[in-house]
Design goal:
Elements (H helix, E strand, L loop, with lengths): L13 E4 L12 H15 L7 H12 L2 H9 L3 H7 L6 H4 L4 H9 L3 E5 L4 H11 L8 E2 L14 H11 L7 E5 L2 H9 L3 E5 L12 E3 L5 H4 L6
Helix pairs in contact: 2-3
Length: about 230
């Protein structure tokens, strides 16, 4: 199925999979490698070495992604950011194929779509490393070159995912993510959402369904695997 075919696809359930720290374990440390490269990039564009960590952290909190703060406040070259941050990550030497993940995704009885806050090249690299890149109809990603691009947990990011996958009914949407904020936002708009985290959410988080690894998905949504 191609992107152009989606408008004619009959209404049916769809599962949106987050990618980073969801399809692979956060124990691999990819997020730490990315932080190091973001901080180095921040110093390159003139951020003070003593405060670069706090500045980048505040951008992440305020904008959902650090890169959005860097764009808004520093007018960074997005191509340079992609090359020096995402493009420099040694994904192929860290992320290995996961046959069990592949089998689980293949066995789910819904349409399958990747939904990430990363850029498209990073998303494709991760999926290829895991050897699941052929299992998704499409990828909803963040285009850093797009002015005011949406990202999770903003509602318009979820609406973008639905629009790009050709789905209009919120009740047909299922979602797995490692972020409490992203899962809560999905639930608030009517999606069935699953938190993927080794740490159980606090009582106040009210995320609902929770698994420790994505491989456990059939345990909480068995109806999708029958």
């Amino acid at each position: 199925m191609t992107m152009g075919d989606l408008d004619n696809t009959p209404s049916e359930r769809i599962f949106y999979f987050d990618i980073d720290n969801c399809l692979y374990s956060p124990d691999l440390g990819i997020h730490l490698l990315m932080k190091d490269r973001i901080y180095a990039f921040g110093k390159e564009i003139g951020l003070d070495s003593a405060s670069v960590v706090d500045t980048c952290s505040s951008y992440y909190k305020d904008y959902g992604l650090t890169v959005r703060g860097l764009i808004n406040h520093h007018g960074i070259d997005v191509a340079a950011f992609n090359k020096k941050v995402d493009g420099d990550l040694p994904l192929e030497s860290v992320i290995k194929p996961d046959p069990a993940l592949r089998q689980m995704i293949l066995s789910i009885k819904t349409r399958r779509w990747a939904f990430t806050n990363a850029g498209i090249e990073h998303a494709r690299r991760v999926l290829k490393c895991l050897q699941v890149d052929d299992l998704f109809e499409g990828i909803t990603y963040c285009d850093y070159a797009e002015p005011d691009f949406p990202c999770k947990p903003e509602r318009r990011a979820y609406e973008k995912a639905m629009r790009e996958s050709g789905v209009k009914d919120m009740q047909l949407c299922y979602f797995a993510d490692d972020s409490v904020s992203n899962v809560k936002a999905a639930k608030e708009i009517g999606w069935t959402a699953v938190l993927v985290s080794k740490q159980p959410p606090s009582a106040s988080a009210t995320t609902g369904l929770h698994i420790t690894t994505i491989h456990e998905l059939p345990m909480v949504l068995p109806q999708l695997f029958i």
